[in-house]
Design goal:
By secondary structure, the protein is mainly α. It contains four helices and no strands. The protein has a domain of 33 residues.
Length: 75
């Protein structure tokens, strides 16, 4: 779930970087830029703690299904 959110957050930025990298000289520049972002995310202590907490106690799918109808746009 957290990785999906990260992917969504990086997708528009990655698309813009891809077009810039393609214009500037190819995919190597894109991969260099994205690898810097991946390294920065890998060093984020809050993100690592959240991933570790999620992996230690993943949510119960049935509980999520019961809660789903109660969610609002702000949740």
């Amino acid at each position: 779930m957290i990785l999906n959110l990260l992917w969504l957050a990086l997708t528009p930025q990655a698309a813009a970087q891809e077009s810039a990298a393609t214009k500037a000289g190819g995919r190597e520049a894109l991969w260099r830029c994205l690898s810097q972002q991946v390294v920065a995310l890998a060093r984020d202590r809050q993100l690592l703690a959240a991933v570790n907490n999620y992996n230690a106690a993943p949510p119960d799918p049935q509980a999520l299904d019961r809660r789903w109808p109660e969610l609002t746009a702000t949740d």
